[in-house]
Specification:
By secondary structure, this protein is mainly α. Helix content is 74%, strand content 0%. The chain is built from 28 helices and no strands.
């Protein structure tokens, strides 16, 4: 198959696409190759137009029964969109040329999708025994790419290590960069993508991968800057726009982040992740009704087996509680509990809801249960302290945090202790915890203490400002 993203912008592809869409409008068959049909379907899928993609694939299968390209794409569609490996096997079985490497890749991909990575690895090792020497490097690259696409980076790295002297091959370097990032070698990954950007500064793929690596390393300002370069090349680059939004959100710039979440959702209105964080951003701006609307959109967009669903339920519960609908909030917490089972964090959140509604006995019952379920975890005790702070029970929060600090093994949450001491008027303790807060976790300090300081002030300046002005 062709190099996708560059090819989609080419005059050749755009002419074929126009020919196909003109035939569609006239409701007549389009005489193009099975590979062209597959390219058009994949183009639609990359634009989030899954229904159009599926219709195009099915048309190609009807015209070219047994042909590998449409059936391969239909097989992957079953895996990625329908999460149905049995359906995938059905379409793969219709491929006539089962000696084609693409067929073997599909068989391995189905195994990986079924969490049988080792079996897929062994299968491909066996297949490679029959691969010609002059095709081996390309085959190894394809296999490593398959595993990397499913985030099986250790296996991808194992295959990539068989390749040498490919430092001028962009496809290899791009895959190497992604794989290095996947196995946690952030600095090495960034070096690779910077090298690729030097070769091709207009590649949004390279900028996006560099931005993702920088974000994972908590270099949020650098990550945002890289994504801004990507958006400059392609103003509708949803991945880059979302990364900017996430970076701004993490830095506590909720108002700026909101504009980018809105922009992302306008490009991908059916994306659950975008709607979810659009809603979460609005929650942080205390715009609860608007937040609930977007969170409910996220729930509608999410597949029944989505890994985001539990988080969406929790955020809906939070919004409903803030809007005074405790029963609705508890109902959504129940949905989250059904997915996560006995989860101390959910029990703490339930206790917080009760506390915010003045039902202290019910809150205490939830907190006791959370501590019991977690085997008296310090982390859960800490979360209860934060829940007390969020509910306005400042003395309770400060007392619980004080208990934690008397332990030799706890040194988190100084921002929360600082703000509690500020509210309680304990000046010496406020300065003590403020200094620790900005030294240990500036992001948390900005999130918790930012309202006490001028807008835009870097948390590293909080301590000196407080000494001079408070």
């Amino acid at each position: 198959m062709k190099e996708r993203f560059d090819y989609y912008k080419s005059d050749e592809f755009l002419a074929i696409l126009k020919q196909y869409e003109d035939c569609e409008k006239k409701n007549i068959p389009c005489i193009i190759s099975s590979e062209d049909y597959a390219d058009i379907a994949e183009y639609y899928d990359s634009k989030g137009l899954a229904d159009q993609a599926l219709r195009t694939i099915n048309t190609a299968i009807d015209i070219y029964p047994g042909e590998i390209y449409p059936l391969a794409l239909r097989t992957r569609f079953s895996i990625i969109h329908h999460h149905d490996t049995q359906e995938a096997k059905y379409y793969a079985s219709q491929i006539e040329d089962k000696s084609n490497m693409e067929y073997h890749y599909l068989m391995a991909e189905i195994s990986v999708a079924e969490n049988h990575t080792q079996e897929a690895d062994q299968y491909l090792e066996k297949v490679c025994q029959d691969v010609d020497e002059d095709e081996m490097e390309e085959t190894i690259l394809d296999i490593a790419s398959l595993f990397a696409d499913y985030e099986e980076y250790e296996t991808a790295w194992k295959w990539l290590q068989r390749l040498t002297d490919k430092d001028d091959d962009e496809e290899y370097l791009s895959l190497l960069g992604r794989t290095l990032e996947g196995i946690g070698k952030h600095d090495e990954s960034q070096k690779v993508f910077n090298k690729l950007i030097d070769k091709n500064p207009f590649s949004t793929e390279y900028w996006d991968n560099l931005a993702a690596s920088q974000y994972n390393q908590k270099k949020f300002h650098e990550s945002i800057s890289s994504s801004e370069y990507s958006v400059a090349v392609d103003p509708d680059n949803a991945e880059a726009i979302l990364n900017i939004a996430n970076g701004l959100y993490t830095l506590g710039n909720f108002q700026q982040a909101l504009s980018f979440y809105e922009r992302f959702c306008s490009i991908k209105p059916d994306d659950e992740y975008g709607e979810m964080f659009h809603g979460i951003c609005l929650l942080n701006l205390d715009r609860y009704e608007e937040a609930l609307e977007h969170l409910l959109n996220a729930e509608r967009n999410a597949a029944t087996d989505s890994s985001n669903l539990s988080d969406i339920y929790q955020e809906i519960a939070y919004a409903k509680n803030k809007l005074g609908d405790l029963d609705g909030a508890l109902a959504y917490l129940g949905k989250a509990q059904a997915l996560k089972g006995n989860n101390p964090d959910l029990m703490v959140l339930k206790g917080q809801f009760y506390l915010e509604n003045g039902r202290t006995d019910s809150a205490q019952e939830c907190f006791n249960k959370a501590i019991l379920e977690s085997n008296s975890s310090q982390e859960v005790f800490y979360r209860i302290a934060i829940a007390a702070y969020e509910a306005g029970y400042i003395n309770m929060a400060a007392e619980m945090l004080d208990i934690l600090y008397k332990s030799k093994h706890w040194d988190k949450g100084h921002s929360y202790m600082a703000v509690c001491k500020f509210i309680l008027g304990d000046t010496d303790a406020f300065y003590q915890h403020l200094q620790k807060a900005v030294e240990q976790d500036r992001q948390e300090a900005k999130f918790v203490l930012g309202y006490l300081f001028p807008d835009g002030m870097d948390p590293s300046d909080y301590y000196q400002y407080a000494l001079s002005n408070f």
